[in-house]
Amino acid sequence: MPGALDCLQVSIECPVSASIYGYVPSLAGSAIFVALFAVFAIAHVVQGIRYRTWSFMAAMAGGTAIECIGYGGRLMMNPNPFSDVGFKLQIILLTIAPAFLAAGIYLTLRQLVEVFGASFSRLPPIWYTYLFIGCDLVSIGLQGAGGGLAASQGNSTTGNTLMLLGLSFQVFTLIVFAMLSFDYFWSAYKHRAELNPQTVDLRRSTSFKLFIGAIGVAYVTILIRCCYRVAEMAGGWRNPIMQNEGEFIALDSVMCVLAVLALTLFHMGRFFRSVTKFDVEGAKVSATSSEGDFSTYPHSEPKAAHSSPMASRY
Predict the structure, then answer these.
(1) At what angle do helices 84-116 and 125-152 cross, to 10 degrees?
(2) CA proximity to 294, closest of 192, 211, 204, 235
(3) Which string of DSSP letters, residue by residue, matches 167-224?
(4) Integer distance in angstroms from the first to the last C-alpha of the chain?
(5) 223-248: buried (b, 16+ CB within 10 Å) or exposed (e) per residue?
(6) Predicted confidence (pLDDT) per residue in 239-292, tens digit
(7) Does this model's pTM top 0.70?
(8) What percentage of the chain's residues is helix, strand, coil (to nearest 5)?
């Protein structure tokens, strides 16, 4: 029986079971995810422009657009599971897209540190962005290179290894992100009587609590997806996990949809609009800063006894 490399169409000599996935990607499922991610991409562009959250918009709109095209590749594989173009599109794009979504999550930590107070942080707020976005770029590079090799079918073992390395590094980055977040919020909790006095109303608002909850949902779902993909790639090509479409939809597709849905409904720009309600030295603060990270956000002036020389008001 010919291998997937030798098959161009389904035939007696090339049954569906001979393809890498061993199944025909669902037409309805792929079409639904194409539509959902297209809507999400448009929504994030509109919201990003409205709230001037440029970096967040780039991460989320970029990630959802990549997801949309990737599922377009799976659509192409429905009439022909041996489609070379369809396979290349989906193996590369659906592998790297969640890394962009993770970047959107990473960008929120800096804002939360500034809301609660930078003096309790081990790092200046902007360093969280540099650290995690830098790691995310490394992950995207590894996954993209591995996906490219896998798509070429020229060196699938090396491609698989690079993709697995990139996905594993992404899981590691997510875990470190959780650890540093916990460390900061534990410190803020211990100094809860000294939090930024200019953001009391914002911190107590329902919208702000919903925003934090949305970040939590997005984080957990992206972590689940990445752990699933590590397990999938660890088994090599044509392993039982890779050839189970139900698991792929439940643990990859749906997880990414839930993550994006949370960060779309509870968009960071929408829930930080209330910064306009705060007065700093008698002047109304504008929420239309040049970046969604709200560089004009009302910061507290930490007491000298608790101020960190590393804290930044970037």
Answers:
(1) 170
(2) 211
(3) HHHHHHHHHHHHHHHHHHHHHHHHTGGGS-GGGHHHHHSHHHHHHHHHHHHHHHHHHH
(4) 62
(5) bbbbbbbbbbbeeeeeeeebbbbeeb
(6) 999 999 999 999 999 999 999 999 999 999 876 654 333 333 333 333 334 344
(7) yes
(8) 70, 0, 30
